[in-house]
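In practice, a research group might receive sequence data for several interacting partners and want a quick structural hypothesis before committing to experiments. The following worked case mirrors that situation: the sequences arrive first, and a predicted assembly follows.
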Amino acid sequence: MAEQDIDAIIRVRDVTVQFGTTRVLDGLDLDVKRGEILGFVGPSGAGKSVLTRTIIGLVPKVSGRIEVFGVDLDAASSSQRRAVERRWGILFQQGALFSSLTVRQNIQFPAREYLRVSQRLLDEIMVAKLVMVGLKPEVADRYPSELSGGMIKRVALARALALDPELVFLDEPTSGLDPIGAGDFDELVRTLQRTLGLTVFMVTHDLDSLYTACDRIAVLGNGKIIAAGSIADMKASQHPWLQQYFNGKRARAVVA
Ligand SMILES: Nc1ncnc2c1ncn2[C@@H]1O[C@H](COP(=O)(O)OP(=O)(O)OP(=O)(O)O)[C@@H](O)[C@H]1O
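A structural hypothesis for the assembly, expressed as C-alpha cells:
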C-alpha cells in the first residue's frame, strides 16, 4: 500500500451516485489526508452535499467504494459502523440545531446516543465543549431561537465535537455569517484542528475560508474532482470555472 493511502482518513474510489436518471457523482475519486483541512468547492448544485452525505452513509451509491479510517463502510458490520461513526462529528448546513432542544440538550444529543454516562458527566462534557468553541456556560439553557447566527454555528460545532472526534464534516459552516463572524469561525476551526489534531472535510463557498483555514482544496465539477491542490494550484489552473472562481472579481477582493 502506498504511503499516501495509509494517510488517507477518507478514501473515495470510483463513486457514482444518481437520483432517477440524473447522475450527480460520476466515478469520483478523492482522498482526505490525516490532519488536513480540505476545502471542498464547486458550482452550486454540483453535488458537494451529496458527496458528504454519501460518505456518511445517508445517500446510497450506485457503485464505488468508500473507506473511512480504513473501514469499507459497505462491508462493515453494524458494530464496526457504529465504531466509525463514533469517531466523526458533523455540522450540517441546514438544521444545524434541534430547535425544540436547549443548547445543553443539543450538545448532549450524540453523547446520549453513543455513551452510557451519568448526567453529571454529560454536563461536564457539555460545558467543556461550550468553552472550547468560545461560548459561556450560561448559554446552556437557552433555545436556538435565543441565539445569534454565529452562536448557533458555535453550538453546532460544540455538538460535532461532543464525542472527541478525529474527523469533522463541516457543510458550509460560515454561510449566513457576516465577514467578521465568518473570519472568527474560520480561526476557531483552524485552532481546534491544530490543538485537537482533527481532520476536517469542509464544504464551502467562502473564498476567505479557503485562503485562511484550508490546507488543500478539491474542486467538484461534472460529477468528478476536476482539481485538487493548494490555492496556488487553483489560481494557476486553466479550467474556466477555477479561473473565474479564484481569479475573478471576488477573489481579487479577498487577496487585496
Ligand atoms: N435526495 C435527493 N433526491 C433527488 N435529487 C437530489 C437529492 N439530493 C440532492 N439532489 C440533487 O443533487 C444535485 C446536487 O445537490 P447538492 O446539494 O449536493 O449540491 P451542492 O454542490 O452541495 O450545492 P450548493 O453549493 O448549492 O449547496 C442537485 O441537483 C440536487 O437537486
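Before designing any experiment, note the following. The chain has a mean pLDDT of 90. The pocket of adenosine-5'-triphosphate is lined by residues 19, 24, 42, 44-50 (CB under 6 Å).
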